[in-house]
């Protein structure tokens, strides 16, 4: 609990300090590393509170076809980037110096949160703290809804990335 509070406080301070930075707009032509991170102009960006499927893990579709689960997540993020204008607000730095961002996409005259779009469609998951508590309650609700609706990756079988990362 103490570690989570420290992390939350650090994120709040980082968010406040970064609030002065202007929104970063991205073209569709970024270099995707995972379903929640990309590189653009020599900088690495990572969606805050979002966890993509791990590259190298297996996704088994309902018809039995197997593919790389991480590549499924990358394809979904790339598709989202290709359909609209993406703008991101920096909210902090990761240990690997990636910039954590919260992003919005303009789709069909509506603004949508990129993390919510990916998670609620079943293309990504809610990130968690080492304790297993969700980084974002809203994203945890979106994941639960996608799981209940059997959306996206939830329609098949896969190793949930949180269980892989936390070795559970």
Automatic annotation (TrEMBL):
Signal peptide as annotated in the record: 1-19
InterPro entries assigned to the protein according to its UniProt record, in alphabetical order: SNase_OB-fold_sf (IPR035437)
UniProt keyword Signal, yes or no: yes
UniProtKB keywords: Signal
Name the record gives this protein: Thermonuclease family protein
Organism of this sequence: Rhizobium daejeonense
């Amino acid at each position: 609990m103490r570690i989570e509070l420290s992390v939350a406080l650090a994120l709040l301070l980082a968010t406040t300090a970064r609030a002065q930075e202007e929104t970063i707009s991205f073209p569709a032509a970024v270099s995707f590393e995972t379903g929640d991170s990309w590189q653009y102009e020599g900088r690495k960006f990572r969606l805050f509170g979002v966890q993509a499927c791990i590259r190298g893990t297996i996704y088994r579709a309902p018809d039995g076809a197997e593919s790389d689960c991480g590549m499924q997540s990358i394809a979904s993020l790339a598709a989202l980037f290709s359909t609209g204008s993406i703008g991101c607000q920096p909210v902090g730095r990761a240990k690997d110096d990636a910039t954590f961002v919260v992003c919005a996409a303009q789709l069909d005259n509506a603004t949508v949160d990129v993390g919510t779009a990916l998670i609620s469609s079943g293309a990504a998951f809610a990130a968690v703290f080492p304790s297993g508590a969700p980084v974002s309650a809203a994203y945890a609700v979106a994941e639960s809804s996608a799981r209940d609706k059997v959306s996206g990756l939830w329609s098949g079988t896969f190793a949930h990335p949180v269980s892989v990362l936390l070795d559970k």
